[in-house]
Input
Amino acid sequence: MKIIVLCKAVAVGVSDVKIATGGKALQYQSQLLAMNECDEYALEEAIVLKRAHGGEVTVLTMGSITTQNILHLALAKGADRVIRVDAQVQDSQAASIVLAAALGKLEYDLVLTGTQSRDTLSGLAGITQVEMDGEKSIRVLKELGGGRSARVQLPLPALLCVQTGIQRLTYVPPARMNRARQQPVRSFSLEDLGLAEEQVVAQGYHFLDVFPPTRTGQVQFLEGSAQEVATTLFAKMKEVM
Amino acid sequence: MSGDILVIVEQWKGQIDGITYQLLAKGAQLADSQGVGLSALIMGHRLDDIVGDLKDKGMNTLLVIDDPELEQAGAEVCAAVIAEAVRQVDPGLVLMGYSLVGMEMAPPVAARLGVTLMTNCVNVENDKGEFVVTRPLFDGTVHARIALEGKGPAVVALQRGPTPTEQLPSKDISIESITVDLKAVPVRSTVLELIEAPESEVDITKADILVAIGRGIGDKDKLPPIEDLAQALGGIIACSRPLVDLGFLSSERQVGSSGKIVAPKVYIACGISGASQHLTGMSDSKMIVAINKDPNAPIYQVAHYGVVADLFEIVPALTETAKKN
Output
């Protein structure tokens, strides 16, 4: 089975967020880029499926060359090859156009990706388990919320969005990471995908403002020793009980 | 009907999901401010009871698609049907819930219509005739206000928020059937089974006091102090999703958009950062106490009392105080 995992490199420790000129994107500082958590779970699931059913796993990401560290991590975790689309597209709908074009260049039976990225928090629904049901279809268990779920059968090729917790995250020893860094990374440009920059911009909206979220609860911070805080809290709790 | 605010009703086996009432309340505000009507779309089969429940909930028009094929239809079919209904109705804006169901349906609805999609929004408002959404970014540490531009009804998916307390005024409602040719809807997936939530040993939705833990707990062997606190207070332990994923606690104790929605008298959040999916599940609580070392943790957005400290210092002290009293 040929599995492609879409993994996003997301900024961690973001600060100084501003609206870029034109109002269609954001600028910000970040401490580092890391593999989006849900996508890492999708990768773990892909590796489990490969070990159970054979085949190969390709990890695809989109971004500048600084995103390649997540591809090295993917190789260290067991991906067979990795590809980077050399484009920086913030908007989720525009990113879908690029990723779809990249998938159009590749062969696959199954595409896995995480439900939501921690930077844009845009998301799609999740799948909690995958099991094979003959060669040409799969059955998935899908969360519906509130403990409810649905069992769904899908023909291949299919794309599944994976929740956190579908597998355990595996630890990668430093030596394996070092070996992964020596492996080649294939790349596509937008031109390779038959796309122009103006096709993959945010459409239909512009940013007005960015700000720290409003504290709707008007939090009162309690200070003092642990015992003092505990005494105050307990008294407050008794008032509402 | 054209230009109306259109709310997509979410229901499970004849029960309307609470998020629908939030959407209707918000939709009513937007409709009044724009001088347009409020419509709602319900789809499924044997909908008479749901139609009866909805018809006095503040809308001008209730659009009904009732078809046996929709009784157990998957998201693939539902999204196609909604898109076709939107083409027929031509609303000014489409409001959906950002539930797990809405997360899956909103993108294909928007893609089929070729319109802008804004998901995971905490608010949508009318600002001088423009629809403006507010949504979180970067783990919820930043919010952005985004103006929607022209062309076609945007699809906006709203997070669960506080349950509306005010009854929307009843209006003279028009109940109309819409027909969508389901045979023309390409379907690849098959829903084999819809599974109810399993019987729980505990029901966190009924507790007056919840002591909730998140990743700040560290290891599973750090649970005992939390158990002691819950016992001393006469409460129940709950948790955020990561602890279920790690296998520390069962999913019946999970609070959040993919778990349970709770509103106890007291919610003590220990080592929970406050991801938006979690806040969705507990922000209605009467008194929220957040204990987290990070003063910028999003949990403080909804907390009434905050303690920026090591939870393993505060929790034992609170347990001791509770036992003495």
Residues 19-34 of chain B form the longest helix (16 residues). Chain B touches chain A through 93 residues (CB under 8 Å).
